[in-house]
From TrEMBL, chain A:
<feature type="domain" description="ABC transporter">
    <location>
        <begin position="6"/>
        <end position="241"/>
    </location>
</feature>
<keyword id="KW-0067">ATP-binding</keyword>
<dbReference type="GO" id="GO:0005524">
    <property type="term" value="F:ATP binding"/>
</dbReference>
<dbReference type="InterPro" id="IPR003593">
    <property type="entry name" value="AAA+_ATPase"/>
</dbReference>
<dbReference type="InterPro" id="IPR003439">
    <property type="entry name" value="ABC_transporter-like_ATP-bd"/>
</dbReference>
<keyword id="KW-0547">Nucleotide-binding</keyword>
<dbReference type="InterPro" id="IPR050107">
    <property type="entry name" value="ABC_carbohydrate_import_ATPase"/>
</dbReference>
<dbReference type="Pfam" id="PF00005">
    <property type="entry name" value="ABC_tran"/>
</dbReference>
<comment type="similarity">
    <text>Belongs to the ABC transporter superfamily.</text>
</comment>
From TrEMBL, chain B:
<feature type="transmembrane region" description="Helical">
    <location>
        <begin position="206"/>
        <end position="225"/>
    </location>
</feature>
<dbReference type="Pfam" id="PF02653">
    <property type="entry name" value="BPD_transp_2"/>
</dbReference>
<dbReference type="InterPro" id="IPR001851">
    <property type="entry name" value="ABC_transp_permease"/>
</dbReference>
<feature type="transmembrane region" description="Helical">
    <location>
        <begin position="231"/>
        <end position="250"/>
    </location>
</feature>
<feature type="transmembrane region" description="Helical">
    <location>
        <begin position="159"/>
        <end position="176"/>
    </location>
</feature>
<keyword id="KW-1133">Transmembrane helix</keyword>
<protein>
    <submittedName>
        <fullName>ABC transporter permease</fullName>
    </submittedName>
</protein>
<feature type="transmembrane region" description="Helical">
    <location>
        <begin position="92"/>
        <end position="114"/>
    </location>
</feature>
<keyword id="KW-0472">Membrane</keyword>
Length: 510, 323
């Protein structure tokens, strides 16, 4: 039995009335990879922030390598040999890799010697762990996979023996994620301890030695990964049985509802983000657009929903032309039966400072159902919101509550309820389950399938390949603004992954 | 030869006029690079000017004047820091408040202490920073070209002028060659990165605003003890805001800041020289137009000629520790 690298005993932490961590006990053996899974808001990140000295526990004890450790600041954690790779990278974008690595770990008041030391140290780390990165590159010019590598290097440069990674694969392509896992395995072989926080169960199964499950602030179970299953973990996370596979019948595609031809969209800097894209979506089918974030999907969605003007191209909705290059605005498109669930619910989909009922009619607020003369009919709106809350199991079930106080999954349900309940002919959905917990994902997926089965056309854009594969009847892959391939739902992850990375099929075969 | 003399004189006054701008601009640079917007440069300069003139005339010492100017200015900078760093208040509101406090209190205190309508007593020669004459300046004054350049432009300024121009390479060195500078730049871009690296965001930003206070204090002292012989109400006359404009124009870089301030100083010098004298082609131009010229050009330059100026990314946003 290996000695424990980290021991947490009876950790409690409250934020106001919210008990984020309740009597948490956790033991992580040295030289292992330990996974922590749980839904959003289960308290995983809080627990790790306590370990990293970002927050302090209200009560409880932390032991590092068997010795009690008092971790009050990040400095204490670093000194105890704990390093953390945050979900949102803690990097200065316009600094070089070297500058980021030495920040806070400079050897003296002048920079020259620190930089020289870091440069030789980076060479050593590169040799030992295969963490290759150009030390003089600016962070903002590096792809996210490399930025993450810089975060790992930062921790190792500070002498971390215990590495915590918070949702590390959220921003990575499948290939980048594989590379990360190879690095983690290498770290483990060198005797480092890795704690991996994630909600992706497949990753847990693939790489961890042991896994702990958190639910609503408590630690509900710890298992050896080899002796558990995805189904068991999902059940432990949610507290009830969860259907991981989406059940759906054959698609019965009907008439073309939405067609797009030769669409070109530029972003605000004038860079062409969508380059000559054409496709169509029929009634009764879900078309999924797969791709790594930033390959033009966002701009495509914005153009089709009328938020951003396209440069050129044409489109038809229900057989009638819509002018995406200028005249079409979101209000008009909504009236014509095209509903849009935006990717970014915080900035585009919702006004977080509004009450739930206000958000549940936003964009349809001119509908006579919600009006009393020129004024809003608050009673009707609240009653309508109550209706949706019931139908979509939105919690807490209070339509007068500020939207910011709902969890991510419930916020997403508010947006979905608003758009779906208008009974649109075409539904455009961006990242429907980003930051949404397992229970809500299941619900949202069922809703989308129900839309399809009701004969609606659904266009789904997601960076979650699993989601695309389980929901779509046809899969289009976007890379660098173009659609580089169309596949059926049976296409393998490897095949789609290569397309997403821009590797031509011919090259891949060689 | 006449043209040459006019040019040297204009450049000489360019230097004199750009010094308060340059000091204020570098002051703003420290603060804004750390992520604290400071619209209160004007107020701190004004308070520094009043404090230095008052102290110099009471204690009959330029050095005590300078020290008092810096002290008061740093005190106001700390007020700004307390509001915007510790209490995470709105940095613009706090800065505006400091400007009003400085504008009002300097007049009230000046009237209460000296009874000269808000002025401080005129400073005697020993109570001001005198011009420093470099060795040989007088000897070669009459040598053509080199003589006037050396004795007028390079030699013959007050100590504070040299401090201001030496502050440029010094600031560059601090910013880009020291640990403090690295952290300062980092905290203005991404304070969370600094925090997770185990460095105190608050202490770092406080140190930055203290630097700002020191420099605005020197700028105020220059106005009251070098450019003038005493404090006059509202004597900063918007220089703090021009310095902010210069800071944006310079894209928050020290050497650029020097050139930007020299440009604004040059426009000022031209405006003064051309007052009342007819221009070729256009003829005589009203004085007010010439006085407005630097400000008009400020707007024009900022609106169209500098390209995209990207401020420090965390600027103006109080740091709240959360995830």
């Amino acid at each position: 039995m290996a000695e424990a690298a980290i021991e947490l005993i009876g950790i409690n932490k409250s934020f106001g009335p919210v008990h984020a961590n309740r009597d948490i006990n956790l033991e992580v053996a040295r030289g292992t990879i330990h996974g922590i899974v749980g839904e959003n808001g289960a308290g995983k990140s809080t627990l790790m922030s306590i370990l990293y000295g970002f927050y302090q526990a209200d009560s409880g004890e932390i032991k590092v390598n068997g010795k009690p450790a008092s971790i009050k600041t990040s400095n204490d954690a670093i000194a105890a040999g704990i390093g953390m790779v945050h979900q949102h990278f803690m990097l200065v974008d316009n600094f070089t890799v070297l500058e980021n690595v030495i920040l806070g770990a400079e050897s003296n008041a002048l920079l020259n010697s620190s930089i020289a030391k870091a440069r030789s140290e980076l060479v050593r780390l590169e040799r030992e762990y295969g963490l290759q990165v150009n030390p003089d590159a600016l962070i903002e010019e590096l792809p996210v996979g490399l930025q993450q590598r810089v975060e790992i290097l930062k921790a190792l440069y500070r002498g971390a023996e215990i590495l915590i990674l918070d949702e590390p694969t959220g921003v990575l392509t499948p290939a980048e994620a594989d590379h990360l896992f190879r690095i983690l395995k290498q770290l483990k072989e060198q005797g480092k301890t890795v704690v991996l926080i994630t909600h992706k169960l497949r990753e847990i199964m693939a790489i961890t030695d042991t896994v702990s499950v958190m639910r609503q602030g408590t630690m509900v179970a710890t298992r050896e990964t080899a002796k558990t299953t995805v189904e068991e973990l999902a059940e432990l996370m949610v507290g009830r049985r969860v259907l991981l596979r989406v059940d759906k019948g054959e698609a019965k595609p009907g008439a073309v509802k939405l067609s797009v031809k030769n669409l070109v969209v530029r972003d605000s800097r004038g860079v062409t983000m969508v380059d000559d894209v054409s496709f169509e979506v029929r009634a009764g089918e879900i078309v999924g657009i797969a791709g790594v974030a930033g390959n033009g999907q966002s701009e495509l969605l914005e153009a089709i929903s009328g938020i951003r003007n396209a440069v050129s191209g044409s489109a038809m909705l229900d057989g009638k032309p819509i002018d995406l290059t200028g005249a079409a605005d979101p209000g008009e498109l909504r009236e014509r039966g095209l509903a849009h669930v935006p990717e970014d619910r915080h900035h585009v989909g919702l006004v977080l400072a509004f009450e739930e009922n206000e958000n549940s009619i936003l964009g349809y607020h001119d509908d006579p159902r919600y009006l009393k003369g020129p004024l809003l009919n608050i009673d009707a709106i609240v009653a309508d919101a109550k209706d949706k809350i019931e139908k979509y199991d939105i919690r807490p079930s209070n339509p007068r509550l500020k939207t910011a106080n709902f969890s991510g999954g419930n916020q997403q349900k508010i947006v979905l309820a608003r758009e779906i309940e208008q009974d649109p002919g075409v539904l455009i959905v961006g990242q429907p389950t980003r930051g949404v917990d397992v229970g809500a994902i299941e619900f949202i997926h069922k809703r989308l399938i129900a839309m399809r089965d009701a004969g609606k056309a659904v266009l789904l854009v997601s960076v979650e390949l699993d989601e695309i594969r389980s929901l779509s009847d046809r899969i289009l892959v976007m890379f660098a603004g173009r659609i580089v391939g169309e596949r059926g739902p049976e296409a393998g992850e490897g095949e789609l992954g290569l397309l997403m990375a821009g590797v031509e099929q011919k090259e891949a075969a060689e | 030869m006449d043209f040459f003399n006019v040019a040297v004189q204009t450049l000489d006054s360019t230097i004199r006029l750009s010094v308060p701008l340059l000091l204020a601009c570098l002051a703003g640079l420290y603060s804004e690079r750390s992520g604290i917007f400071d619209i209160g440069l004007e107020g701190k300069m004004l308070a520094g000017a009043f404090a230095s003139a008052a102290a110099a005339s009471v204690f009959h010492s330029a050095w005590i004047g300078l020290g008092m100017g810096i002290l008061i200015s740093v005190a106001l900078a700390l007020v700004h820091g307390f509001a915007s760093i510790t209490h995470r208040g709105n940095q613009i509101v706090s800065g505006v408040a400091i400007n009003f406090v400085a504008a009002g209190s300097t007049i009230i205190l000046g009237q209460a202490w000296f009874q000269q309508g808000g002025r401080t007593p005129a400073l005697a020669p020993g109570e001001r920073f005198e011009a420093i004459v470099f060795p040989g300046a007088d000897a070669i004054r009459d040598v053509p070209i080199i003589g006037p350049i050396y004795s007028e432009l390079i030699s013959g300024h007050s100590l504070l002028v040299y401090i201001a121009f030496l502050a440029v390479p010094f600031t560059w060195w601090v910013l880009f060659r020291t640990r403090f500078g690295l952290r300062l730049r980092a905290v203005g871009e991404n304070p969370a990165a600094v925090d997770t690296a185990g460095i105190s965001v608050e202490w770092l930003r406080y140190r930055a605003v203290i630097c700002t206070g020191i420099l605005t204090g020197i700028a105020g002292a220059y106005l009251a003890m070098v450019q003038n012989a005493g404090f006059v109400k509202d004597m900063t006359a918007g220089k703090g805001f021009i310095a902010l404009a210069a800071l944006i124009f310079a894209k928050w870089k020290p050497v650029n800041a020097m050139f930007a301030c020299l440009l604004f100083g040059f426009l000022d010098a031209i405006a003064i020289r051309l007052q009342g004298s007819p221009l070729p082609v256009i003829g005589k131009v009203p004085v007010q137009f010439m006085q407005a010229l630097p400000y008009v050009l400020t707007v024009v330059l900022l609106a169209g000629f500098i390209g995209k100026a990207i401020p420090p990314r965390a600027g103006g946003v109080p740091y709240v520790k959360e995830r």
